[in-house]
Amino acid sequence: MDFGLSEEQQQFVDTLGRFVARDYGFARRRTIVDSQEGWSKEVWQSLADLGVLAINVPEKYGGLGFGPVETMLAMNVFGAALLVEPYLSSAVIATSLLCDIAGESVKAELLPRLAGGERIAVLAHFEPASRFVIAHVECSARKDGERYVLEGQKAAVLDAPAAGHLLVSARTSGLPDDDTGVSLFLVSRDSPGLVLREFPTLDGGRAAEVLLNKVSVPASARLGGEGEAMPAIERALDIGLSALCAEAVGAMKALQNATIEYLKTRSQFDQPIGRFQVLQHRAADMLIHFEQAQSMSYLAAMRCTAENTLERRRMLSAAKVVVGQACRFIAQSAVQLHGGMGMTDELMVSHWFKRLTMIESTFGDSDSHLQRFAELAS
Questions:
Q1: Band of the pLDDT at 179, cuts 50, 70, 90?
Q2: Which of 9, 142, 246, 249 is deepest in the core (most CB within 10 A)?
């Protein structure tokens, strides 16, 4: 199978690479992370101008109409640069979900603005008791005439502080772990009763606990049929999981390159430490883990939109297990090979380490996906 990039794809990667090298260096990123917002509207608009926010938006709504492969290429670049802007949350997951489940009027109004950088939307789905179980939803939506009243709590909603809209899952019928009975609602950030408890994440990003205290929304805010949102949510999260694996691959590649360069330049006993055989063996093990993770990332990108739900989820869990294990091994090995300075805030190595640690547990850690893979394979 040919995994080479087309001329157009290579130009896309080169353009993004030049952008992050010029406008998103380590010093600029640290300034953005330390800012009050924790992300840059200027960078976000630059991404829109480059067409990156439009990758998953159909052409009829002003997008590029691309898909998982182009998303994978973008996430490779963003992983290496440690982008903190809400690309995965908004331009990948929320955009894919809206394309899948929203009505024509909502798509026509919101998708062009998402592609143009004017709006940011994120999915608020996981809850304190869900423990990576996608179908577990306790948040409720009660019908009240021509409106719905939402009550409940969403846990650690990534990039929620930057969002103008939340895509909130809520149960309109059934028990918390039922696969059916979950609806999806488009909720404005400034809705009365909606409270965000913001906090910084380990990797320099921002997240929030979302509290819904009798949040009233019109019936038109419901996306898709009542109680029928779960399959679309699962599809969007699978696309997001594929993109997350690609981000990890980009970060691991950059971290591996930095570590090899360090082994070549750091001297001890009058010679580069890269000449010591035990360190060469560790570097070789890092390369093996990276190659395996990259291959599984390709698989995830090719299978994340497959119609066969069982096969799709099985392949994505397999990819997350391999990528998650590689995240842990490469990140820890890089820090060990750098010594104590590998954990200093002044060195980008520590920031790659934090991001890879975060990725390993996002959307389910390696153990939970290994269990899911075994259950789906039986």
A1: confident
A2: 246
Q: Are 188 and 164 in contact (CB under 8 A)?
A: yes
pLDDT at 52: 97
* Burial of 356 per CB tally in 10 Å (0-12, 13-18, 19+): buried
pTM: 0.96
Helix, strand, coil in percent for the chain, rounding step 5: 55, 15, 25
For the record, the structure tokens of 332 come out as 């820890």
For 160-172, how does the pLDDT look when each residue is reduced to its tens digit (9 = 90+)?
A: 999 999 999 999 9
Q: Provide the token pair at 257.
A: 């390159």
Cα Rg of the chain, angstroms: 21
Bridge partners of 215, per DSSP, are 150
Q: Residues with Cβ < 8 Å from 281, sequence gap 6 or more?
A: none
Task: Assess whether pLDDT exceeds 80 at residue 3.
Answer: no
The single residue listed with the structure tokens 């994120």 is 122
Contacts of 252 (CB under 8 A, 6+ apart): 79, 289, 290, 293, 326, 327, 330, 331, 352, 356
Rounded distance, CA 181 to CA 173, Å? 5
- The token duo for 344 is 């200093």
Mean pLDDT throughout 303-319? 96
Q: What are phi and psi of 138, to 5 degrees?
A: -105, -25
Name the average pLDDT for the chain: 95
Query: How buried is 1 (Cβ within 10 angstroms: 0-12 exposed, 13-18 middle, 19+ buried)?
Result: exposed
Reported as a single tens digit per residue, the pLDDT across 119-142 is: 999 999 999 999 889 999 999 999
% residues pLDDT > 90 (the chain)? 89
Structural domains for the chain: 7-120 (1.10.540.10), 122-226 (2.40.110.10), 231-377 (1.20.140.10)
Structure tokens that stand for 116 in this block:
């143009």
Is residue 351 left, alpha or beta, with left meaning phi > 0 and alpha meaning psi from -120 to 50? alpha
Q: Which amino acid is at 76?
A: N
> Cβ(168)–Cβ(184) under 8 Å?
yes
Token code pair at residue 184: 């999806």
Pinpoint the alpha helices (H) of the chain. 7-23, 26-34, 41-49, 68-81, 95-101, 104-115, 230-265, 277-303, 309-338, 348-361, 366-377
